[in-house]
Amino acid sequence: MTRTSSDAASRLVGRPATRELVPVTPGASARWHQHDYPGPFCRWNYHPEFEVHLIQRSSGRFIVGDHIGPFRAGQLVLVGSNLPHDWISDLGAGEVSRGRDVVFQFHPQWFHDCTELMPELASLQPLLTRAARGLEFRGGPADAAAASLVAIGTASGVERLGHILAMLSAMAAASAEEAVPLANPWAPPRDERTAEVMDDVLRYIFASGSQPVRMSEAAARVGMSGSAFSRYFARAAGQTFSATVRKLRLTQAGQQLVRTDRPVAAIAYEVGYQNLSNFNRHFLAHYGRTPSAYRRAQV
Known about the structure:
Blueprint: H1 3-13, E1 31-37, E2 50-55, E3 60-64, E4 67-71, E5 76-79, E6 85-89, E7 97-106, H2 108-117, H3 125-130, E8 135-137, H4 139-152, H5 157-172, E9 179-181, H6 194-207, H7 215-221, H8 226-237, H9 241-259, H10 264-270, H11 276-287, H12 291-298
């Protein structure tokens, strides 16, 4: 192990626990909270609780399991138990998105106990089963569930329970086109180091800009050999390191094509492609259309 990789490993050892520990809210059976970005909750993490996640402002790229895609204000996602996730906004240095995230988290045991007392809630079980892959909601059900999610934060007692049930009911009523599964099924490793390693590596990829992203450098950051890191990353992310980098960069390119009128070649370079032909080929394989056709379709 090199001095650099040894130092990186030492830094990781002293960091907080990797799995997010969802605290209990006094007087409430499940947790609601709102937070800024960046912040202590904004990292690649997993936890046994289900999570309803609303983005209120900003845009960027998000990861749920092995799915990588763009997000913007209004996005509502239901994350399954122990499914890794992260939302990274496109902000400049020192910028903060206040109140970006509204989150509701509940433990599977909470739902099980509630269902035993109120059998009617069993109708929600198919929704939670499908959430194992993560679900992104659209249209009317997304709007209704988001409104109820926000309302939970200012309510208490029976009124709070009413908003919780309304939110879950709206999501359960969504059609297949309105509740889109995100990740492929797979079981990520859950050791004490995984989330720290993944969070460190993802920050390295996002900070790279147009510069090359090297697996050897990522491996050195977390104190691993290249071959060990390659296997570790694939198990943790459900896909290879190179596939993750490619998806992140193509997602960024897609956002730039929609938001700006900059030339395709300039966007390709900005997201790290030195060869326009390679960019066009990868973009077509990922989105099913050329960059120019993608831009026209989004106008």
